[in-house]
Write a structure and sequence with these properties.
2 domains; C-type_lectin/snaclec_domain; 4-stranded antiparallel β-sheet; single chain; 8 strands; Mannose-Binding Protein A, Chain A; 4-stranded mixed β-sheet; alpha+beta
Length: 311
């Protein structure tokens, strides 16, 4: 076939060209060097024109895969975000419920605290009232006992008053076979020891001599039942006929007898501030009823005199 002959001729010619090129001869070349350069550049352009499309295709495919992956990731993230928002809404709802419950509990606690404070206040008021009533009850009991004691004392004084009317002057009390005068009246002012003795002497007696246990018990009990409770015990003393004016620490009665039986309070006599006169006080223990005091100090006093008509 002609096609086959031309093909063989082309091949033979191409081989010849190759051989000539390899042999380095320049005579009668089928192509000049310029033509060969054009053929080489044409082939390079043809190859390079195909490689960029393939690379672009690969890049686009990779980008498409990346976009698909990103799209899928965004979809998953959106779904998760949507589910998270719902979860957050649920959490907010639960927190709101808990806050409402907490606020309600706080209000209940405040109400309970107010109620407790009211009940505690009422309890405190009742406690105070109970203490007040208890104190009043004790005061009433003490008053009852005091009145009973006064009644008993008055009853015991009835025979003495009867005897006093017969054996003593008006206003005097018959006690232990002697007549005694006690200036319990508030109209009679307190006096010094010497003024008190002069008062007794003008009435025919002298300051009292308390030289027996029976006398100190009876006299202390009598002045104790008539003393002023609003005044201190030292302002409720009564002068008796006892002094150491003549000789310090040698206590004598008005008739000159030296003291033998004494009823001094603990630590007495102590002779503070020149205390040379004796007084008896309304103490609970009648055997500790005496104190020494300055003779110019003003106190009540007790007079004593012999009774009359002892037959």
């Amino acid at each position: 076939m002609a096609y086959e002959g031309s093909s063989s001729s082309f091949v033979a010619t191409f081989d010849k060209l190759i051989c000539e090129e390899d042999s380095g001869t320049d005579e009668n070349p089928l192509y000049s060097s310029q033509d060969k350069q054009q053929v080489s550049m044409s082939m390079q352009r043809h190859g390079s024109s195909q490689n960029p499309y393939r690379l672009l295709t690969v890049i686009l495919a990779v980008m498409a895969v990346i976009l698909v992956a990103i799209n899928i990731g965004l979809g998953v993230y959106y779904n998760q975000l949507t589910g998270g928002q719902q979860t957050i809404k649920d959490i907010h709802s639960e927190v709101a419920k808990l806050q409402a419950g907490y606020n309600a509990a706080i209000l209940k606690r405040i109400d309970a605290k107010k109620q407790l404070d009211r009940e505690l206040g009422e309890q405190q008021r009742l406690q105070w009232e109970l203490e007040h009533q208890t104190r009043r009850s004790k005061d009433y009991e003490n008053q009852i006992h005091r009145i009973e004691d006064e009644i008993s004392e008055l009853k015991s004084l009835i025979p003495l008053l009867s005897m006093s009317c017969r054996h003593c002057q008006p206003g005097w009390m018959f006690l232990h076979l002697r007549c005694y005068y006690f200036p319990f009246s508030v109209t009679l002012k307190q006096r010094s020891w010497n003024d008190a003795r002069q008062f007794c002497q003008k009435l025919g007696g002298d300051l009292a001599v308390i030289d027996t246990p029976e006398k100190t018990v009876s006299i202390t009990k009598l002045i104790k039942s008539n003393h002023d409770p609003e005044r201190s015990i030292y302002q409720n003393g009564f002068w008796i006929g006892l002094s150491d004016v003549d000789e310090e620490n040698i206590w004598k009665w008005p008739d000159g007898r030296i003291l033998t039986e004494s009823y001094w309070y603990d630590g007495e006599p102590n002779d503070q501030s020149n205390e040379d006169c004796g007084a008896t006080y309304p103490r609970n223990n009648p055997f500790k009823a005496w104190n020494d005091a300055p003779c110019n100090y003003h106190l009540k006093w007790i007079c004593e005199m012999e009774p009359h008509d002892m037959i």
